[in-house]
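Entry — protein

Goal — fold tokens:
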Amino acid sequence: MKATSFLDSRGSLRLAVADPAGAWRDVTAAALDDAGPQTGLSPMRHFLSSDGDWARLAIAAESAPVADIVTPLAPVPDPSKVVAAPVNYRDHQSEMNEDIAVDALGVFLKAPSSLIGDSGTVRLPYHDRRFDQEGELAVIIGQPASHVSEAGALNVIAGYTCLLDMTMRGGEDRSVRKSFDTFTPAGPYLVTADEVGDPAELELRTWVGGQLRQRADLADLIWSVPRLIAYISSVMQLQPGDLIATGTPAGVGEVCDGQDIAVEITRVGRLQVTVSSQGAFTCPTLGKDRGPVPPAHVTPPSERVRA
């Protein structure tokens, strides 16, 4: 099943699922299940935090109205946290001249307020700093998870989505450089885990301005999806709706005003956003020309070798 969050023409936060014909049906009432808006959670997060019964939403969709989608949002617009894996592909480790990878770095947090949805706008805050795209697969957690084993890790996943981990290069803390408002586009929707299958079988591609920059097999992750979940859940309890960004492959590069960025993952969908530098000003911190050195030129994407 596919599900997404959105704002309708009245500015209300809603939840929709795709029916068998591909039409989006507003199942907000069924997702809230008489709880009402007083929960303080988005309909998606409330649904995942209650029973997370997708079959119930599928039945509700049969009689639900067509969704009045005005503004697409991230599938879960209000996760308790966004956890991200740094340097989780060897080719990206090489292009960034990094001596260490995820197995030495662990993970970092991004501000949930940096989330935007499909067709949104990434707003570059400064005119004197470099900003790069990083296409990634994101995992959406479906139940509370603490000290989960690798063997059981896939069982706590509600679904998957595409994600862009937008990044300012420099020496500032990683979480700061990646947490500007609009710096975590996610979408276009959540695809339930049963429809996606084994995440190691997926393929990721990222385009900037129509040019292919990134191509990767998720099987090439240094820490697989199950290992990431096992490790993260040993550090912090994961909550329903939490996002895990699994890392980006080689092909990161500078993005500029007016460019479109698209991330496509097999069986997960295609996320597309636009870049704007309107309102950008001089950066107040001094991290420029410090920190990991990004490639001067985009690393050419490598095509899958098929048997």
In short: The mean pLDDT is 95. The two ends are 31 Å apart (CA to CA). The first helix runs from residue 28 to 32.
